[in-house]
L,D-TPase catalytic domain-containing protein
Amino acid sequence: MVALLALALPATAQSQADLAADAAISQDFADDGNVSYFSQSWLVDTMERRTATSIADVPRVYYDYYIVPEGQNRLEARLSLYRRFGGDRDVIKPLLWLLNRNDLEALSPGDTLVVPTHFGLDFRAYSPFPRYYPGARDLDQIVILDKQIQAWGAYAHGELERWGIINTGNESGRTPSGRFNVNWKQDYRVSTLSPGYGSTAPDAELWEMYWVMNLHEQRGIHMHQYALPTSGPASHGCIRLLEPDAKWLYEWTDTWDVENQREHISSAGGRITDQGTMVLIIGDDISEPPQPFLHRPQYPVIRMVNLPPDPYDVPPGTDQQRAFDRLAGR
């Protein structure tokens, strides 16, 4: 990171810091209902699998269709699927779940799944993000969030480090597009808008957040751990991540530097002297489940994320980025 600017925000923002930080995520807690979610514990081993240090050593993967045979009930359909691809349910089910955005529990005869040519590889082999991002090779770190594919990718000096799936904002609270930076982080936070906030009662209802990374100070837009529905965009503006991804990003990203900072989660009254890890939020908003594959007649093709040639081509998302851009002459 390069120190570019001393940016002061109005001191009045400080008293609103907690409220802004909790607003969007608190709506998610309040509105949570009977929704089908990804089982995070099922997916950990698949998401964490690494078989190579460099992406150059990760094998290429292609895809095909698998049609569930007729005459089977749902249990038989799943067992037949596992046998067809080697029999190891703990390897097959999580990967198909992630690729198809389908938990397979409702699999029925005649259903079509996308299946890879190889299972059990380094998880980056199945990424919708390009393996290399030439436009970011001079950046130590950059995170890309794609709203159309509902996925994220992280690059170090232009090489893909990790990727995963996300939920962004639904129609009632879209996640803003643009170029942002990681501002502040908290590994654990209790929403100040929780029904039981401030109560000492043992049964007080508290809305707990883990691995919180703020991107938009005024609007309270964060990346954070949360249950991910299989249905696509579902939050009120924040970016939901699976537990392993949220923890990894929390440890991997850098935050801003603020002089004379009065409060951990606010820059009010202080000066931002250095920005945190760059985060691009790109892609069209969708209202239906994401479609990670193009379904051609002969075989499926993974939809690759279209990265901007230069990260700075993405418009700044807040006044912070605009101010730093002006000082840098962009």
User: Anything to note?
Assistant: Confidence is low (pLDDT under 50) at residues 1-15. The chain has two domains: 7-38+128-328, 62-120. The chain is about 20% helix and 25% strand. The first strand starts at residue 7 and ends at 8.
